[in-house]
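Most newcomers find our protein records easier to grasp once they have seen one. To make this concrete, we reproduce a full record directly below:

…
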Amino acid sequence: MSTTTIGHLIGGHIVTPAGRSQPVYNPATGQADKQVLLAEVATVEEAIANAQAAYPAWRNTPPLKRARVMSKLKELLEQHADELCALITAEHGKVLGDALGELQRGIENVEYASYAPELLKGEHSKNVGPSIDSWSEFQALGVCAGISPFNFPVMVPLWMWPMAVACGNTFVLKPSERDPSSTLRVAQLALQAGLPPGVLNVVNGDKTAVDTLLHDPRVKAVSFVGSTPIAEYIYSEGCKHGKRVQALGGAKNHAVVMPDADIANAVNALMGAAYGSCGERCMAIPLVVAVGDATGDAVVAGLKAEIAKMKVGPGTDSSCDMGPLVTKPHFDKVKGYVDQGVAEGATLVVDGRSLKVPGHEDGYFLGACLFDHVKPGMRIYQEEIFGPVLGVVRVKTLQEAMDLIDAHEYGNGTCIFTRDGEAARYFTDHIQVGMVGVNVPLPVPVAYHSFGGWKRSLFGDLHAYGPDAVRFYTKRKTITQRWPSAGVREGTIFSFPSSR
């Protein structure tokens, strides 16, 4: 069987230097018919050099022209949707419908970046003093870098580089080496849309590539999405080397179900939030906090019935609700959490560990798992599992539920299911979490808002995409200007200038 080699995109060309590589697996089959090259230091430095060389001309390109490239890219992404979704599913495993949803949310960010001429307008004040005008400008930083995760190989990179380059920066992107093909293909479409060579470069790799980006002084800003330990490392290492850094980390999102909630609707919402994309989302719901035992009983019964209807199989099968986990090591890790939950005393209501998909016996398929009577302190409660494992915690009051959420180290997303407006308002106002839903299980902001959690789910002051992205990828410059009237000569002023 022939093997396809996935290289790097540098200076507008695919390059395949000799060096290390690793297999890229199809998680539905467990087979690898691709190899991805892992960039060494010299390759990453070549990408940075190309971005640096492209920066002056791109910075001086009018924002409207930069925006038109984004508009063209949006068209191309829509035209190539089937191709891109097939690449996502082949390497990540998520069902095609979920891949399309990912692509559409990414396209929304490209569309928002096409508003750059409006977003980059500064502020102007005339006559702040005698014959003195003052204004601010948002100027590009230079070479920026992005390090993106495996779970959204198209969407998350589109959170980063489109806005960065629309603001006048150039970019080096390091996608996940587990599923790099769709990311690389989008970059090729950007060239087709008119992005000049060197403005966007893609290097595949591992920690060697990451550390090179973090240490190179030509890189001015780094954006990261991934697990909290790596996010903390990226943030501390990047800041130590004088870079602007936003690092989005992990999550353990709680969904509170109140006694007055529409249980049937809540269960349907929780099914998608817990098991969609095989649970490999930082905004997934891995924990349900049921207020009252009657609520807990109803939720567990509803979930158990709905799980029995689920179909798990290859993502290319349109009848499937859930595909495989991304790699064999990740499969083993998630299965190990289920084993741990049983050992810790949680009640395993639905056990998906024995699932077999006919014809795909070597695929990384784990059936939906459901725990009841999960307790704080258990590993399945505390740690991010990133798989199709949902746990139900039982409490007596809304305040007890909120105390649990606030005590957790992560503060990415949360939601409440209720018909009570007062309870919803209290919850949204006081909960210590960055993204909150009311009867919405995945409160992911649209492209013209910004995405980010609190506590150990985000390192840095600015959230991803939306208005915060404009601030992250630019620096403010304030200019104060005076043109004295002809023939008027003033005496020396020793006091601090003011408008008085």
User: Anything to note?
Assistant: The radius of gyration is 25 Å. The chain has a mean pLDDT of 96. The chain is about 40% helix and 20% strand.
